[in-house]
Amino acid sequence: xxxxxxxxxxxxxxxxxxxxxxxxxxxxxxxxxxxxxxxxxxxxxxxxxxxxxxxxxxxxx
Amino acid sequence: xxxxxxxxxxxxxxxxxxxxxxxxxxxxxxxxxxxxxxxxxxxxxxxxxxxxxxxxxxxxxxxxxxxxxxxxxxxxxxxxxxxxxxxxxxxxxxxxxxxxxxxxxxxxxxxxxxxxxxxxxxxxxxxxxxxxxxxxxxxxxxxxxxxxxxxxxxxxxxxxxxxxxxxxxxxxxxxxxxxxxxxxxxxxxxxxxxxxxxxxxxxxxxxxxxxxxxxxxxxxxxxxxxxxxxxxxxxxxxxxxxxxxxxxxxxxxxxxxxxxxxxxxxxxxxxxxxxxxxxxxxxxxxxxxxxxxxxxxxxxxxxxxxxxxxxxxxxxxxxxxxxxxxxxxxxxxxxxxxxxxxxxxxxxxxxxxxxxxxxxxxxxxxxxxxxxxxxxxxxxxxxxxxxxxxxxxxxxxxxxxxxxxxxxxxxxxxxxxxxxxxxxxxxxxxxxxxxxxxxxxxxxxxxxxxxxxx
Lengths: 61, 454
Hints:
heterodimer, A: mainly alpha, 2 helices, B: alpha/beta, Amidase signature (AS) enzymes, two-stranded antiparallel ribbon, 15 helices, 15% strand
């Protein structure tokens, strides 16, 4: 889901649930998510795949 | 001139040798609460009767030769997230106002076994989701040095209680800085141990993979004392404390992102403290974290997702019982997509590797704890440098990285502003080495600067 679609759907849902004050927070979250998605350390299924060992608890890595 | 508040380490000698009684010490703390807490609002529940009875028991035990050690007879306050048997655990929320704990959290049981006396349960930012202590069902906590300012948060009542001499130390929690931020702006020592060093059982969670438990107190020696009582010890794993000479100690000063947004007085105090450490013979060099710009998004996506999962049912059934801002932030977390949460976990691994790399060949990292001194109550933004920044983002800016990565971190007072507001410096050690960090912090404490409570 694109961030724009996500923001539209989430904002409509917050409005429907009677939580319009959440909408500006969702806009801030959308900017934060955009930063997260464009970080250069994200995985790319078409390229390298150096995944952490899932058998190890996150804390042990 | 009033006497300097005592550390636990110094009080313990007087208690052990019966120069002072636990009853007298507890009474002094309760008097402070009676005199000042109507202004400060540090406590949600004061346990005066229980504390007086525990003090009488401690005095009898010590007189009979049953001295339990340096916490015996020492008054401690507890952030109202921990279960203390027979009391409500409110988390500063109407959502939990009818809760009553049947048993002590393991950390509370450990404190009691060591002889500590619980004087009460302290106010906090509701459910620990905030850094100013303004959103609480029990009203805001006021800074003991200036009632128009926040003592920081979320363990704000804890820090205020220690600064105002209502307790000798407090048990707090730290999910993004909630021990270190209030400790720094109140001129105290605050320890966030390595992840999972101290159990979080019996403590209302905020974000299970970021939550840490630790002490707020008046010296590094007191932090060590409390850490040793609180930690999850493995038989045979007791580490030995080592006197570490400052000369030759290698410290990395975090720059770039970590120095970009600092109040001028915080920057100046930190530079002076660093110079004193350098003059004492430590070897300082500069180091960066390549993806520091991703810290806040990674933190936000992990913290809010985990918090929303814990609160989902109560948000649906009792949403109106939350304070409005905390409710809105929790609701925001319910909209985070699973793929973005997983991205944030990937980012956590990247940041962890980068902090490990920054520590490679160095004993610890050194940086300011909070970019600004105690903020004014009611302020949502403040000017730093050329821009207006969110108080929440600013206060979390230098602490949340080490919740993401799990490295141990401690704040130590390093100076004051011209208005007399405390400033803290933060030391960060290798993962799994809280005890080593305490050794380093104890060696550096006299050089970083005198705190208000020492």
